[in-house]
Write a structure and sequence with these properties.
Order of helices and strands: HEEEHEHHEHEHHHHHHEHEH
Number of strands: 8
Strand content: 15-25%
Helix content: 40-55%
Strand order of the largest sheet: 1-2-4-3-5-6-7-8
Structural class: alpha/beta
Length: about 300
């Protein structure tokens, strides 16, 4: 496919950790850039199909880049220095600084950003907006946003005690599975996802979850999410509301529908929508094409304003 010809996968040094970045297209071809910031696990390969659809929908005129979270992807030739850096960089605050640093150092300042966050990536984007020149940002799309009361959500109530007391067990299980051959690991994924139409990129992304280092960082950040993503920063939302769009799930146990209705009540003039298609919170597993089309259609209003 033509999109595949424009695809690049690279590791860049950032905050002491080699960071996986996925790119479709180059910034010299457009004055706009999609930047995808993932949920948790923050493995950008999960979003490969979604990014490809976005790039195709723009007729390859708007590049689409995505950045993994620090420490969530197996690093080639990783060293002890990476392990030492992980706890500061892989905290929730550290990941936010990690993304700001990437924007400031790797994206030309004259390129307008279309920020797409998923799950905790939405919280990161909201925090990023106060740390970069907001004039650089054209639009922020928050997909299935976990931006408040995570520990109180139905899934959060289950995850919080497990992440607090049983993280060691998860790491121990993965440590054991890490000794299996890649072939056996891949067969386990095929069994786990059997009966579902999962894109190949999701299998490739999930292979990182057999790395104890990555899983330890994933769970460490998740534990901090439960503790720190509590009260919605209404002042921040109000300041940046004209550039924000929110897309809530119909049956999302990380950000339940009640959160959507409360957001609509607090910000009646905001662009806040509820999914009518029944897509899952982890949309990248089975609805990447559909969400790519939705975001592209959503963006047309902004692009048409700029062209008039």
């Amino acid at each position: 496919m033509m999109e595949e010809d424009s695809k690049r996968s690279e590791f860049v040094p950032l905050c002491g950790i080699m960071t996986h970045v996925l790119k479709y297209g180059n910034t010299d071809q457009s004055k706009y850039l999609y930047l995808v910031i993932p949920g948790n696990p923050g493995i950008i390969d999960y979003y490969d199909r979604f990014m490809q659809v976005l790039y195709r929908n723009s007729d390859q005129k708007i590049p689409v880049w995505g950045i993994s979270h620090a420490g969530h992807v197996t690093v080639p030739n990783k060293s002890l220095d990476v392990e030492k850096a992980s706890y500061s960089v892989c905290s929730l605050e550290g990941q936010i600084k990690h993304k700001v640093k990437y924007i400031m150092e790797h994206i030309p300042p004259d390129v307008k950003l279309i920020l797409i966050g998923h799950s905790i990536g939405c919280y990161m984007i909201m925090r990023i907006l106060d740390d970069i020149d907001h004039q650089r940002v054209l639009r922020c799309f928050h997909l299935f946003p976990t931006i408040e009361r995570m520990a109180q959500s139905p899934k959060g109530q289950v995850a919080t005690p497990m992440l607090k007391y049983l993280r060691w067990l998860g790491t121990a299980l993965v440590h054991g599975a890490s000794y299996l051959s890649p072939f056996v690991q891949y067969r386990l994924l095929l069994w786990y996802f059997s009966g579902r139409r999962i894109p190949e990129c999701a299998y490739n992304a999930s292979m990182n979850l057999f790395d104890p280092f990555c899983v330890s960082n994933v769970m460490y950040m998740a534990n901090l999410e439960m503790q720190q993503v509590a009260t919605l920063d209404e002042d921040l939302v109000e300041r940046h509301l004209p550039k924000m769009s929110f897309y809530y799930g119909e049956d999302d146990h990380w950000c339940p529908k009640s959160y959507y209705f409360e957001m609509k009540k607090k910000f009646p003039h905001g662009d806040i929508r509820l999914c009518e298609k029944g897509y899952d919170h982890a949309f990248v597993l089975e609805a990447s094409d559909q969400m790519g089309d939705i975001v592209w259609e959503w963006l047309q209003r902004d692009l048409s304003k700029l062209e008039t």
